[in-house]
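Subgroup meeting minutes
Present: P.N., E.W., G.H.
Scribe: E.W.

1. P.N. recapped why we're keeping a running log of single-chain structure predictions: easier to compare across weeks, and new members can see raw inputs and outputs side by side.
2. G.H. added today's entry (120 aa).
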Amino acid sequence: MFKKSTFKLKKGQFYYRGQLYLLAADLPEGIPAFPAELIFQHERIKKKIILIRGMYPLQAPDFNSLIMPIIRAVVRHMHILPATESHHHAEGMGLLTHSLEVASSPVNLELCWIYTRFRS
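Output recorded in log:
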């Protein structure tokens, strides 16, 4: 297990042991997973979550108990991965960024609203 102090977020970039995170890929122990709390501090991720929260028809406590656990699980499992090999979102955190963009699209939000409205 890595110590949290080895992970930093500076000027929108992630650092591991003082190296830019993507450059840390040549470490003999492999690429470490960042703590989810640090990922949530990244400006791009914060903005996408705020957008999703603002578009959902749920009150804050319901959003926090129903939707945020899903987002946290996605962050823990996808934050390292690129979305594609050589197209848009090909960088680390690309799959997470893409997934949050899809989750915030009006069509998906409308389907979620319909589901929650008529589920009961």
